[in-house]
Specification:
This protein has no helices and four strands. The model has no long low-confidence stretch (mean pLDDT 77). By secondary structure, it is low in regular secondary structure. It has strands at 10-12, 19-21, 26-27, 33-34. A hairpin with a 5-residue loop joins β3 (26-27) and β4.
Length: 105
């Protein structure tokens, strides 16, 4: 398909509505056809900021076999088999709590 391109081909600016030669008009980053005095490049603030990638979980993790459970780590691994390499059997823990009294009238 052929388009008009001679000196009598005009276009209307999408911003101002003024008439310009079609060969002098420019297309902005958001698709507007504007005159040369209205054209501006895309501002850097409009580009998205790259988001850092979240760390991934380990594939097939294994606990440290030399840990005896008393190394002040956040997680302690207990083994129910004898003394076991992974740790010791936990002692039985009992807990009591009270909130107060309730009166029903």
């Amino acid at each position: 398909m052929a388009f008009a391109s001679d000196k009598r081909a005009y276009g209307i600016c999408d911003i101002t509505g003024f008439r310009y030669r079609l060969r002098d008009m420019k297309k902005t980053w958001n698709g507007l056809l504007v005159g040369p005095d209205q054209w501006s490049k895309k501002e850097a603030q409009l580009d998205p900021v790259p988001v850092p990638v979240d760390p991934q979980a380990l594939r097939d993790p294994r606990p440290d076999p030399s840990s005896d459970g008393n190394d002040n780590n956040l997680f302690t691994v207990y083994s129910g088999v004898g003394k076991g390499i992974l740790g010791v059997n936990p002692d039985t823990v009992s807990m009591t709590a009270s909130v107060g009294t309730v009166t029903i009238s």
